[in-house]
Amino acid sequence: MKYKNYPMVSRIIFGRGSFNQLGDILSTKRLNAKAPFIFLVDDVFKGNSWINSRIPIAYDDQLIYISANEEPKTSQVDEIVEQIILTHKERPSGIIGIGGGTILDLAKAVSIMITNKGEAKDYQGWDLVKNEAIYHVGVPTISGTGAEVSRTTVLTGPEKKLGINSDYTPFDQVILDPELTKDVPKDQWFYTGMDCYIHCIESLNGTYLNAFSQSYGEKAFELCKEIFVENNLSDEEAQDKLMMASWHGGMSIAYSQVGVAHAMSYGLSYLLGTKHGIGNCIVFNHLEEFYTEGVKLFKQMKKYHGITLPEGVCADLDDYQFDIMIDVALGLEPLWENAIGKNWKQVITRDKLKTLYQKM
Amino acid sequence: MKYKNYPMVSRIIFGRGSFNQLGDILSTKRLNAKAPFIFLVDDVFKGNSWINSRIPIAYDDQLIYISANEEPKTSQVDEIVEQIILTHKERPSGIIGIGGGTILDLAKAVSIMITNKGEAKDYQGWDLVKNEAIYHVGVPTISGTGAEVSRTTVLTGPEKKLGINSDYTPFDQVILDPELTKDVPKDQWFYTGMDCYIHCIESLNGTYLNAFSQSYGEKAFELCKEIFVENNLSDEEAQDKLMMASWHGGMSIAYSQVGVAHAMSYGLSYLLGTKHGIGNCIVFNHLEEFYTEGVKLFKQMKKYHGITLPEGVCADLDDYQFDIMIDVALGLEPLWENAIGKNWKQVITRDKLKTLYQKM
């Protein structure tokens, strides 16, 4: 048996207001006055001076606002990289992503594509990246995806939705400032938080489970229960704990894998552009068969927080479209092997997946 | 408020048998045929072919057996560094520590002192190290100290027992192979496991606590209870979980601090050479006043596992000797501030500490 040698985020700050230290951190990383820092910032923060006044722009640094309304695309990565190369004579000193999973994944991918030839789609898969990425920093402003800690950056390409999984993907620096999540709308808070919850369920119930992933997964699961079920926390405590849940949930799947919900949700996203958090929820809601207890508690939390999920998202799809989703989902072999075991192909048939998708 | 920007271990492997991958890992890190890897190995493994046959020695690599019977010393670090420099023409490709906290701390310190002038004692303190350490790998063979994850290497110097705390201290690579701990003697298993338990208690009850440290500390505490109290685990599960408890306990104090037990235990070690694990136990056993519930559970575990602690270790000491211990303990200001709060000097007097030491 050969084990993964997992690359970790190099440095981490945690604390309310730690975002204020971004300037100090970057000042030691600037290569020269002409090598800019590129800030990729969720465009919900346009005009938000509470955030923007603290983004330490200097010299030729550039701030690019990015919409997180759609899942990140390989073509989008290529466009941002081109824009950076055309605007600046020197290679940037670093890329700083400030936002949720979409922005963080874009920041990771852009930092890789600055130093690697070709297009982002060429690197979707496992360990295809040749050259070290440039310095990159992640500042999550919404908690749950675990993008701040993982060695992947999940992108929708022309042929597939799949991550750039590489040792160069993890951030060199992460700033965990829970205060930055205070204005996340409730439905988004729930969907993204549930991404973390589902990571735990899929990791803890997977065949790849090991004591490493279990300890992280159990802790993230406990934190999710404190936040979404028990509800005895102050707003600040809930923000702090959800940020840590996201981190631990990310570490849990880092060393194991996700499962059925993620595989099927990737299919939905690829075909319909469904955002990852809500997509996971839509799928997971129908997975009692695989995760009985986990789905039961999920429904309880959904009810408790008054969340209504979209229904019938697959109602008008034709067979061709179902086939596309099923192809994407079945392509994620490690996820199925983790969820079901080595003989997963005997259980997970195309018909089975179609029946499940039809319920959604 | 300024937060710590914590440097993480760069890479981590977890799994039973993962030690077999050491050769593969090192092969990509060898600078050239004349730049050796130096393996610092606990001398309990002398003649142990189960371990030794898997240490991938090649070219001019050197294996140095080291006794862990005493706490690591700054003078010992200087001697090992001198031995390495005199034996090899080229700077080593890396230092690999295979052992418990003593060996791991020596490996970290040696990797620093290869690239920094002067003596190890010059760097005892916080952020005194100027130059990056050489590549260094930690392979724990006993679980609990958290040395595999921390940014310190605790050394006894001529004037003090204090760590070299620096951003260059953490390992570049850690191999967590719980199987390597299978032959640890029971008393040692208990004392070192309790080091982890005490880390959790001190972190969770400290004024420096934050959601980051809390989540790690709570998980490590839960794992300690599974291992030392509930006792429903197979040997293998207990080994796996204790290795993760040590990791999480280390992460918990990494981002907060230890407390009364560690401060006073450093005094004992400095004066009497008491090993860290047992020293912590001897001290903690008398700290009901500070950690009521924690000490209660500790005594339960001690009884359950039939552990008898030495008594009267301070019985024959004179005032001069008490003063030495008290000076060492009081010198560790952050530990006291974490344990008691900013006004700790009003509570922790020299008389108070003497009275406590006299009980031990």
From TrEMBL, chains A, B:
Residues 10-178 form the Alcohol dehydrogenase iron-type/glycerol dehydrogenase GldA domain. This is 3-deoxy-alpha-D-manno-octulosonate 8-oxidase. GO terms for molecular function: alcohol dehydrogenase (NAD+) activity; metal ion binding. It comes from the Bacteria. It comes from Ichthyenterobacterium magnum. CDD domains: Fe-ADH_KdnB-like. Residues 191-304 form the Fe-containing alcohol dehydrogenase-like C-terminal domain. Keywords: Oxidoreductase. The keyword NAD does not apply. It holds the Pfam family ADH_Fe_C.
